[in-house]
Specification:
Helix content: 10-25%
Structural class: alpha+beta
Radius of gyration: 24 Å
CATH topology of one domain: Immunoglobulin-like
Number of strands: 21
CATH class of one domain: Mainly Beta
Number of helices: 3
Shape: flat
CATH superfamily of one domain: Immunoglobulins
Distance between the termini: 60 Å
Length: 261
């Protein structure tokens, strides 16, 4: 009886192994579906599996490695938060593993598209930390344009000035309520911040400005010196610009700004 049970167990194990080997998790046609939102799409695997999808801006990973059971992923908010540039994504079937990953073509995203994405994305009320003080998480319906500048009308009817937070993003308005863009210096602390153009939200994370990469903390301050990001090391000079194709402290830095050993 014990021998029979062992034989049946071996047959079952062999059957399961053959089933796994026969499964087809191949996916294909990674592409973009871009209109008022930015969707990553790909063909479904023949056998049921979830998918891991990662967004890139240029060669840099943006956000986390996302898991989904769908064959499309909405990157609208993440792209809107990281500004204009060239985006692609990599996706692989979870059961198949990273060796089955496929990559989409690069999708150029202009400033005009970013403005559309910001209007279409769903409002988020999750809190973040910042060195700034005024906060408000009301709807974007309070935005209005006057004399060629954007303003924000608060719930009490007055317009926003100085730092003001809308839908989890920081903006800066001058004394007349005009929303600012580009580099600014906060006179209250002397620090420089970058407000994405044309949308005005304070930059956080990797940002490409005049063909130079910067990395901004959650506070909006740019980093300098050595930083580690997703297991890779980069060097940012005293102006916050990422350096490339050079040697710093005896360490070689390649064309992507990554220290190579």
């Amino acid at each position: 009886m014990k021998k029979l049970i062992l034989i049946l167990s071996l047959i079952f194990s062999l059957f399961m192994s053959m089933s796994v080997l026969a499964a087809d998790y191949t996916i294909g046609d990674a592409s973009w579906d871009v209109g008022d939102r930015a969707y990553a799409t790909w063909d479904e695997a023949e056998d049921k599996t979830k998918y891991k999808v990662q967004l890139y801006k240029g060669t840099k990973k943006i956000g986390g490695n996302n898991t989904t059971s769908s064959t499309k992923y909405d990157f609208t908010k993440l792209i809107a938060d990281n500004g204009a540039g060239s985006y692609k994504f990599k996706v692989y079937p979870l059961k198949g593993g990273p060796n089955m990953a496929i990559e989409s073509p690069a999708e150029p995203v202009e400033a005009e598209a970013i403005a559309v994405f910001k209007k279409s994305r769903s409002n988020s009320n999750t809190g973040t930390t910042s060195n700034n003080t005024s906060t408000n998480n009301t709807s974007s319906n309070n935005w209005y344009q006057a004399n060629g500048a954007w303003h924000y009308r608060k719930s009490d009817g007055t317009y926003a000035t100085n730092w003001f937070k809308v839908n989890d993003h920081w903006y800066f308005f001058d004394a007349n309520g005009n929303m600012q863009t580009g580099w600014i210096t906060d006179n209250s602390n002397g620090y420089r911040y970058y407000l994405n153009q044309p949308n005005g939200d304070m930059s956080v994370g990797w940002t490409l400005i005049n063909n130079k990469w910067y990395y901004f903390e959650e506070s909006g301050l740019y980093k300098t010196g050595w930083i580690e990001y997703n297991g890779l090391w980069y060097y940012l000079n005293t102006n916050g610009e990422m350096v490339t194709n050079t040697i710093i402290d005896g360490f070689n830095i390649n064309q992507d700004g990554v220290w190579v050993q």
